[in-house]
């Protein structure tokens, strides 16, 4: 009887989890459906689950001015800045984890506090600095900006993972004639692969969705997909909801696929490596 009750409890628990997941996924599902509806079906006061799908909305987005440039820039900025940030953050995290300079905990707090500051609070100083340096509208300027904002969070995650990797790995590599770089990249790096992937995904999502700095500091050739949401919503003086739905569908697909493929690393990354014992 107890086993049967446990089975019912587990089944009810899973049903509740599925219900919660479906509720949170419902807006995304609605957007995807709306991307294939005509304007009449979309703005109809009655929700139409059955309708004649159309690809005109997707075609309108693909034919939008500079859409290919914005999409390419989203991928280039996201992937390029995160790869650079992960490399720099990994080396810095190794230094903090292995050499533990004085005030390490306070330094880590200061680095992470950069991400706690609201974006509008630093927008004006950054704009003045970029204007003085001539970096506004510059590809490298925007790339360095996203690298700068991605490093603190990556450093925080990777240090947690590196703290869980025994010093014996480093010592064994050095005793056997390996260089410090060999110990870092060939011995220690594979041990923190989940942390690297988790940090990369978190920061990819941040850069992919970032708008305000890209809109203010970026130029015509460096703005990304979110820029289109701000400038392409009105068609003929009215809001083009089919355009918004189609663009949103195209926009959310890469993060959804990425999160689905690497979801186990996201779960590990949210623990910052602290659930691990020393390896």
Brief write-up:
With 279 residues, this protein is mostly helical. It is built from 14 helices and two strands.
Quick one: overall form?
A: globular
Strand content: under 5%
CATH superfamily: MetI-like
For the largest sheet, list the strands in their spatial order. Answer: 1-2
Class from secondary-structure proportions = mainly alpha
**Cα separation of the termini:** 43 Å
User: How many beta-strand segments?
Assistant: 2
What is the third-level CATH name, the topology? Answer: MetI-like fold
The CATH architecture term is Orthogonal Bundle
Commentary on this structure:
This is Various polyols ABC transporter, permease protein 2. It is a multi-pass membrane protein. It is found in: Cell membrane. It comes from uncultured Thermomicrobiales bacterium. The chain has 279 residues and is mainly α. The protein has a single domain (65-241, 249-270), classed as MetI-like fold, CATH 1.10.3720. The protein has 14 helices and two strands, in the order H-H-H-H-H-H-H-H-H-H-H-H-E-E-H-H. Strands 1-2 form a two-stranded antiparallel ribbon. A hairpin with a 2-residue loop joins strand 1 and strand 2. The longest helix has 33 residues, at 2-34. It starts with a helix and ends in a 9-residue tail after the last helix.
Spell out the key features of this protein.
279 residues, mainly alpha, MetI-like fold, 1% strand, globular, disordered C terminus
């Amino acid at each position: 009887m107890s086993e049967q009750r446990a089975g019912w409890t587990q089944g009810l628990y899973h049903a509740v989890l599925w219900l919660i997941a479906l509720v949170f996924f419902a807006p995304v599902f609605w957007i995807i459906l709306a991307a294939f509806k005509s304007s009449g079906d979309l703005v109809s006061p009655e929700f139409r689950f059955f309708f004649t799908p159309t690809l005109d909305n997707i075609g309108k987005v693909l034919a939008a001015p500079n859409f290919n440039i914005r999409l390419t820039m989203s991928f280039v900025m996201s992937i390029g800045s995160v790869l650079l940030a992960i490399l720099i953050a990994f080396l810095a995290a190794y230094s903090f984890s292995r050499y533990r300079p004085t005030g390490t905990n306070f330094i880590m707090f200061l680095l992470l506090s950069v991400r706690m500051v609201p974006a509008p609070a630093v927008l004006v100083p950054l704009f003045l600095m970029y204007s003085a340096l001539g970096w506004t509208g510059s590809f490298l300027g925007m790339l360095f900006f996203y690298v700068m904002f991605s490093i603190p969070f990556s450093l925080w995650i990777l240090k947690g993972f590196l703290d869980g990797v025994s010093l014996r790995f480093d010592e064994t590599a050095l005793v056997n004639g390996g260089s410090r770089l060999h110990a870092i990249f060939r011995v220690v790096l594979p041990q923190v692969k989940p942390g690297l992937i988790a940090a990369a995904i978190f920061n990819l999502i941040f850069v992919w969705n970032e708008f305000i700095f890209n809109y203010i500091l970026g130029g015509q050739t460096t703005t990304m997909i979110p820029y289109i949401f701000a400038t392409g919503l009105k068609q003929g003086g009215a809001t083009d909801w089919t355009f918004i739905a189609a663009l949103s569908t195209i926009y959310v697909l890469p993060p959804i696929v990425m999160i689905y493929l690497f979801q186990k690393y996201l779960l590990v990354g949210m623990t910052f490596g602290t659930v691990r014992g020393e390896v």
